[in-house]
């Protein structure tokens, strides 16, 4: 998409603005500034990790500003006597669309390139990056061929070409996000964690970058899984009460997030066994599992007794366990500290909370009592 805009900007300037080369230079400069701006925004939105939640923002921006570029270009104000400064002042919407379009592309591409490097095996990383560059080059050639066909065979104008590219981006984005649900899930998690709260993270480097591990955390609210998932640099598989996992509408989101439903063996021995089998399977595949050993959301703000399910997990699959704590969540509208009221929601909006992680504990040292003490120290330190 970016290659199409870059290669057609000279045609766009000559056809709709002026054949003076300075206008082409101006458009290319604005497009380049937008790319740099997008990279800066990406860094600010991502923090100190690769944030896949901003990918839909980038995809959305490319289409929205692509569409608006088409409409803002319908009535370009220009004349042979007009300077570049005058043109900028009279057509700021068009130039702003172009800059934000390229910035959106940067927001989309930067996390993906970082993700390729992070998730590729170290011994094959160079080949993976090289292969990605080859694919990028092929798609650039494909975009040039597409432009030639649209402009010379279909006889579209350059503006209609830009409009068709924006529309195709919508279709492709819908397909990609429907196939790779992780992007959409991370987007929802990112929105909730960034909009509703101001999250401070401590000790997250203790979560292993590779290999299996179990995260254990106190259970304070209905959004604890979202807060832990947003803080982790890696995808997390959550073990969740089956009644919550099967809530109408939300069950589809939990299914996309690959949550593992569980219940008491007194309720269903089959679901209980399936849950532990699935946990074992995920850990054997090198994934990260998160459980809330209290088994329920606190009603007092105090830590409940830890159940022994974590002991069964590490007995079947001896992996390190990372104790975590959520601080400042009690009292929020998603906790059980009181009835929901509008004033309470307003007062707690953008409240500050902290996600804390301790050093991993080897499987052979794990007990429910020990983990309860460590988590208690984390949230009361």
Using the coordinates above, name the CATH class of the largest domain. Alpha Beta
User: Largest sheet, described in full?
Assistant: 7 strands, mixed
Q: Output the number of helix runs.
A: 15
Distance between the termini: 50 Å
Order of H and E elements: HHHHHHHHEEHEHHEHEHEHEH
The tally of structural domains comes to: 2
Structure report:
By secondary structure, this protein is α/β, with parallel strands linked by helices. It has two domains: 2-179, Growth Hormone, Chain: A; 194-380, Glycerol-3-phosphate (1)-acyltransferase. It contains 15 helices and seven strands. It has helices at 2-16, 21-46, 55-72, 84-90, 92-119, 125-153, 158-179, 181-195, 224-231, 242-245, 250-256, 269-284, 309-316, 342-348, 368-380; strands at residues 197-202, 213-217, 236-241, 260-262, 288-291, 321-327, 351-357. Strands 1-7-6-2-5-3-4 form a seven-stranded mixed beta sheet, with helices on both faces. The longest helix has 29 residues, at 125-153. It holds the Pfam family Acyltransferase.
